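Teaching note: in complex prediction, the entire set of molecules is handled at once rather than each chain in isolation. The prompt given to students was simply: 'Predict the structure of this complex.' The entities are:
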Amino acid sequence: MRILLTNDDGIYARGINTLYEYLKKLGKVYVVAPERERSAAGHGITVHKPLRANAVVLNNDKDLCAWAVSGTPADCVKLALEALLPGPPDLVVSGINWGANVGTDVLYSGTVSAAVEGTIAGLKSMAVSLDVRCSEPNFAAAGEYILELVETYLEMDIPPETLLNVNIPDVPQGEIRGVTATRIAKRRFIDAVEKRKDPRGKSYFWLSGRIDEQELPGTDSYALGENLISISPVQLDLTNYQVIDQIQDHWNIKT
Amino acid sequence: MRILLTNDDGIYARGINTLYEYLKKLGKVYVVAPERERSAAGHGITVHKPLRANAVVLNNDKDLCAWAVSGTPADCVKLALEALLPGPPDLVVSGINWGANVGTDVLYSGTVSAAVEGTIAGLKSMAVSLDVRCSEPNFAAAGEYILELVETYLEMDIPPETLLNVNIPDVPQGEIRGVTATRIAKRRFIDAVEKRKDPRGKSYFWLSGRIDEQELPGTDSYALGENLISISPVQLDLTNYQVIDQIQDHWNIKT
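The expected output is the structure of the full assembly:
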């Protein structure tokens, strides 16, 4: 089996290196990841400048094929599939991200975007994130869970154009209460911008903000709060089919 | 009425400047747009460095409040809503983009992401793009159509968390055949990466590719081919609800 592994924290991040050690038990793993952190890259791709892909050594592992790419997570997957791998992988995995990717944040997440890119290419794809709660996250425990989840996922008949977004609570192993399928929460940030003055007295801004949210049962963010591993099925099609007729009637037009 | 106008081609692009001239007939228009082109930025936001917003003069119009922002289209909307505008706008408009934003491209589009950001904030939002087919696109004709569409949209009771993605064929005015509500096409690129050698013999890559697509009736891309203005309702919720039970059963877990 051939697996493409990527992330948005950068190729030298602990999450991806730990996950590699687990996934290699399943087959040949190719790591193609950003050369630096690209968090919150969303589904950006690089079209105005060329990309570089440098072969690097990771984990002191001579068998590992790894490339550090000068672009976004989505760029990495495009490049891997079209130029770097010897053939199409059986699976695309993105992560383990440092920090949860739940709720509306999914839209901003480079981790999820890489999995979306795999799905566009027709491949089984999974984004995995660790809901880090202390300064010493346990990526190894998450790696074990992910290995199990991947094995199950490969057996499943998930409809095409759907990827899995997995979030794992970073709690001691005995405290994880199970796995649950979730919907993506609706989240809004408040106080999302902080205004400051530079030493010359000119304004600048930081995006920040805290979440204004009731955690609702059935959502990904609620599941994490319950110490459950959350799996959300994410679809590519953004069309709101219920509204098509309403628009058509309102504009009252022939097609 | 208060309107926030943004884009991803940059604040000095023809599309946004033309659209301003039309939208100002409806009320006070605030332009907050990237200081340079940010096409294919996806839903990226800037969290690792601060943002600047410089007041600029556009269209020689003293009444116009315009800010050039050092970030992505999504950054522009966040900044506008939280720090620059005197209060929440009644409408967010993103465009007119140079080039169509249809099919899977919607995921990569900075134009659409800006409208998504408006929708997250609970505002009526519209992305508008011109399907340019020659070197001298007619943004003015598109501006007239958009003015009409915006007026209709403001009257409509579209469900929250749904924005409109509008694409207009760039053909002589008499040749536009009408308006139609569409679903977002599924598109795949083939030959998506071009490999080249630099003068030192080292490889680099360009993302490119052509579309491998049957244009299907009912889709946004098909409508443009028929010289129809396409309006797709785009939803924020990416959950594939049909698959939740399947996952739950397969992992067989209590919640």
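Point out the following to students. The mean pLDDT of chain B is 91. The radius of gyration of chain B is 19 Å.
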